[in-house]
Design goal:
It is a single chain. With 288 residues, this protein is α+β, with helices and mostly antiparallel strands. The strands form four sheets. Strands 4, 5, 9, 10, 11 and 12 form a six-stranded antiparallel β-sheet that branches. It has a two-stranded antiparallel sheet with strand order 1-3. Helix 1 runs antiparallel to helix 6.
Length: 288
Amino acid sequence: MRLSVVAVLGGAIFGVIAAAMFLRPVDVPAAAERPVRSLPSPPETAAPAPTARLVVPDPAEVKVAVDVRGEWSWALRELGSGAVVGDGTLRNTTESMIKSWLAVDFLASRESRISAEDEARLSRMIQVSDDHAAQALYLRLGGDESIERMIRTCELRDTRIHPDWWSKTTMPATDATLLGRCVARGPGLTPQWRAKLLELMRSVDPRDAFGIPEAPALEGRRPAIKNGWTRHGTWWTVNCLAIWEHWVLAVMVHYPDRGDEHRYGARVCADVAQQLFGRSDISLASGR
């Protein structure tokens, strides 16, 4: 076990994990992360804002401490500015979390209507995490070509493709928040399709809505979520992704199984969310 405490986010804080031999990198131009900062107040001539001024937390003041028995990474991104705070170097396999992208890629190539069969397939993939539905869409979208589009479109910086296997795509939490931003505000989706997808993500099966929404500070909220979880041998991979109007939070955990299965990872996700959204300066209710 080890104690992970957030360090100051200054420049690039996330170490790059060496890619395994079976992974092939996709060469995507990397844009530097925008600095974490407080956004300026509106000019005095502007009409009063309906909600409190959005404040992006100072990384020096964001402290998250979780006793993780394996590896982890987490990131919280403000959707408007792109500013991000976080910690950890883990690049996890995405598992079902990447289904949110498959939905984006599929809907972006469709007009205002899809067949009843495709609508049912899309709903099963998001709401009950149906792997067969995901595989069918992945193949129709060109297989790894879809994952390459994700890296380009969402401007992912440290994501690697596993050939012919969408769930084994690897990324860190910072890239996961960029994926979340792509779902919430990225290019390609009409307002109709974006609203449809986010509503599906807000209404996932309760058995799959674990982790971040379970934080007491978020009681009564309905984030758009897409988690991913799988046991590989004796180790569990658990990813939690949640999107609100102003924020996207990703938590990734990789740990040895001790009989508590994905629930241990879910508790880590909830603990991180509680420590972040239990703060007075990171608020959902006031639009901050």
